[in-house]
Amino acid sequence: MPNIVILTGAGISAESGIETFRADTGLWAQHDVEDVATPEGFARDPALVVNFYNARRKAAAAAAPNAAHEALARLETHNVGDVLVVTQNVDALHERAGSTNLIHMHGTLDTALCAACGHRWPAPAEMAPADRCPDCAAPAARPDIVWFGEMPYQMDRIFDALSRADIFAAIGTSGNVYPAAGFVAEAARAGAQTVEINLERSLVGSQFDEVRLGPATRTVPEWVDQLLERG
Ligand code: BJW
Q1: In the predicted model, what is the mean pLDDT of residues 211-218?
Q2: What is the pLDDT of residues 57-114, one digit of tens each?
Q3: pTM surpassing 0.85?
């Protein structure tokens, strides 16, 4: 049975109504990335950052998984291989669609993190900058999000999976942000067949064996159906 590693980015949730980052009207056109997605920005203005993520949490809760999320969940249940989804997305649409072998490498909107002791707890719909940690009581709550300059989560597990991958797919990610943009090179080094599924070629598109262009709600179910037919 093949080991299948799938990296997803904002493009897979775009048709669920969640904004991407680098589109002309995307999140980085509306907010300065240095202000809302760095530890320094959080130290300067915690209220601005917490409110940015409160609004994102509200938008994510109102969205529903689409046919692309559902197709990846279907791939996992059909047992044609060992399927690991590594998402850069902080929404919960993969798990709501039914994926269980899932890593949120850039964190999640659904938990809060104590910057003092590392404790995690379910995030309230509206976090406040002075929220206290329920474990150590420090007023040090922050969104459980990986900002620029911070180490993404579960990197050992991800690199181990990439080193054993037979198939690697990157779906709806622009290839701007590392280490995720380097996963195709890691998987190719391990001998995996690599496929990019995106509206347009990403910055690292030339490194893939195959590129499938189109909206994820069409291209991902097509790709999954072909894998399932192949058995
Ligand atoms: C569709 C579609 C549809 C649209 N259907 N497709 C120089 C060189 C190399 C690295 C660095 C460097 N200088 C600094 C770094 C490191 C830095 C980095 O990469 N910077 C770059 C900007 C250069 N990285 C970090 O700091 C990371 N940490 C780190 O490196 O630690 C050290 C380390 C060392 C060694 C090993 C491991 C670690 C941390 C990165 C944290 C990223 N954080 C953010 C924000 C937080 C999360 C959040 O708020 O949600 O994560 S930034 C933002 O970008 C977010 C995303 O997860 C991430 C990726 O974006 P994504 O998903 O690709 O979205 P878009 O909008 O860019 O693209 C959407 C795509 O979808 C497009 O391609 C569309 O075409 C497509 N699409 N609709 C199909 N319907």
Answers
A1: 98
A2: 999 999 999 999 999 999 999 988 899 999 999 999 999 999 999 999 999 999 999 9
A3: yes
Domain boundaries, the chain: 1-18+65-106+152-231, 21-62+111-145
Which of 145, 178, 186, 213 is the pocket-test mutation for ligand 1 (most atoms within 8 Å of CB)? Answer: 178
According to CATH, what is the number of the domain 21-62+111-145? 3.30.1600.10
Q: Where are the beta strands (DSSP E) in the chain?
A: 3-8, 82-87, 102-104, 107-114, 120-122, 141-145, 167-171, 193-198, 210-213
**Phi–psi pair at 210, nearest 5 degrees:** -140, 145
CATH T-level topology, domain 1-18+65-106+152-231:
Rossmann fold (3.40.50)
- How remote is the C-alpha of 183 from its chain's centroid? 13
106 in active site: yes
**CB count in 10 Å sphere of residue 36:** 23
Does 60 sit in the ligand 1 pocket, CB within 6 Å?
no
Residue nearest to atom 37 of ligand 1 (CA): 179
Cβ–ligand 1 distance for 145 under 6 Å, the answer: yes
Say if ligand 1 is within 6 A of residue 6 CB. Answer: no
Q: pLDDT tens for residues 148-187?
A: 999 999 999 999 999 999 999 999 999 999 999 999 999 9
